[in-house]
Design a protein that fits this description.
Layout: E1 13-20, E2 25-30, H1 39-53, E3 60-63, E4 66-73, E5 76-83, H2 88-105, H3 112-117, H4 119-129, E6 130-131, E7 134-135, H5 140-152, H6 158-188
Antiparallel strand pairs: 1-2, 1-5, 3-4, 4-5, 6-7
Helix pairs in contact: 2-4, 2-5, 4-5
Protein name: Coatomer subunit zeta
Family: Belongs to the adaptor complexes small subunit family.
Membrane topology: Peripheral membrane protein
Length: 189
């Protein structure tokens, strides 16, 4: 028996996938480059995973020597992939952290449209939870804190957009007033 395959490893996660209800890729991160090196192989794997899971009520699947845990929400399917020897509870912990974090960030609207509108934040969430296949965080509140720190630096929040518009209107009003004064003085000369 090969004992090297049974040695514990920090590299728990092989891939994270988010597919729509047609099985199309919305997000995929493969952490094991030898697993599916080409895009074509990755898409074939994703199609197989989707076909096996989209009508099933289970949360765990075994496919091509891999353990896959998954969850669906409205029109999205979330997958976390690990090796055949990987602890399903560890993979499920990652999946739940990902789903719960996205649920809070998307304000309980875990749907394709909202996910695509916030895709940059979704990538940040995935990167905060997993790095190179190593699980970094499993607490959704910690992930939200780290991601919000970066999101708060983004100047395009709803309030800042309104402030930006009002500043532009004030500048435009000032420019128009100045133009009126110049026209008035040029006519009076």
């Amino acid at each position: 028996m090969d004992f090297m395959a049974l040695e514990p490893s920090l590299y728990t996660v092989k891939a994270v996938l988010i597919l729509d209800n047609d099985g199309n890729r919305l997000l995929s991160k493969y952490y094991d480059t030898e697993l599916y090196p080409s895009i074509k192989e990755q898409k074939n794997f994703e199609k197989s995973v989707f076909n096996k899971s989209h009508k099933a009520d289970n949360e765990i699947a075994f496919l091509e020597g891999l353990t896959i845990v998954y969850k669906s929400s409205v029109d999205l399917f979330f997958y976390v992939v690990g090796s055949a020897q990987e602890n399903e509870l560890m993979l499920m912990m990652v999946l739940n952290c990902l789903f719960d974090t996205l649920s809070q960030i998307l304000r309980k609207n875990v749907e394709k449209r909202y996910l695509l509108d916030n895709l940059d934040g979704v990538y940040l969430v995935v990167d905060e939870i997993i790095d190179g296949g190593i699980i970094l965080e499993s607490d959704p509140q910690q992930v939200i804190q780290k991601v919000n720190y970066r999101v708060d630096e983004n100047p395009l929040s709803e309030q800042s957009v309104a402030q930006h518009i009002s500043q532009k209107l004030a500048v435009t009003s000032t420019v128009l007033q100045s133009a009126k004064e110049q026209i008035k003085w040029s006519i009076l000369k």
